[in-house]
Each structure stands twice: as structure tokens, then as C-alpha cells.
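Study the following:
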Amino acid sequence: VIEDLDMKGMSQALRFGKSVADSGWGMFTSFLQYKLKEQGKQLIKIDKWFPSTKTCSCCGNTLPMPMNVRMYVCS
């Protein structure tokens, strides 16, 4: 599972232009997809607004958390 990054938008942001363009993100995702397909697996791209840090990886429950909390604890 990877985030579907908006590389064009990031490259137009202040002071990110060349560093984002040189990162090779597209090549990396293509290679990753190729390798996963080789193993019979699938690459899943999620939206940048998907609350992955607020979602329990076991049960899927979502809990609102403040920015200073770094780990989800399922109850």
C-alpha cells in the first residue's frame, strides 16, 4: 500500500521543484508494481487524505487523534 502522491503539485510548491522532479517516484512505483505482479500480489494506491494513522490495522476502526499522538491504540 502506497500513497498516491501529487508529484506535479509538490514540484510546484516553494523550494521543492528540482528535488521532487529528481526523486524518481514514478520509476519506483512502476518497479514496485512490476515486482509485486511477479509474486502474484497487487499494489494498492491510497488517496493522500486516507486516515491511515487514525485507523486500526487489525479491526479497521477509525479514531480521531491529535497531532501529538503518534501511535494508534485500539481499545
User: Anything to note?
Assistant: The helical segments are 7-12, 17-21, 25-38. The chain has three helices and two strands. The mean pLDDT is 80.
